[in-house]
Amino acid sequence: MPGVDRDMKITCDQTYQTPLTEFGAELARMIKDCAHAQIAARFGYAVAHDRPSADAIESDIGYCLGGERRSATIAMATEARIFVKYFKQPNGGLFGLVECFLPLDHDTGELLAELIVTTHQDEFHLSLEDISYAAKSI
Fold first, then answer.
1. How much is the pTM?
2. CA torsion, points 101, 105, 107, 112, in degrees to nearest 10?
């Protein structure tokens, strides 16, 4: 099945910093466990395009680790850094952002997985927006 931008409906109470941080920690654990199908089923993947979501997630993580002459691995023993941010005035339904930075071994950068919180007609949704490589400034 091609990738779709499925999302997870969440409650208003789950839009606070602590629950969103917990969703970020859950995503980081799933990435470390290579649970790509579970990530796709739980959060969807907005940028899967015409690819099956789980395959797109696996491919994008692989590119972050091995693309552009990198040969990094996710640092399994290191906790992810998770930041929750809110849009000052929800624009186009954008409500919040959860940034999950997973440290890498054999590279100074990090894998960045972003969850986005959207709102429409008093409903809130959470989805995996993007997976990318984040260079650390030295």
1. 0.91
2. -20
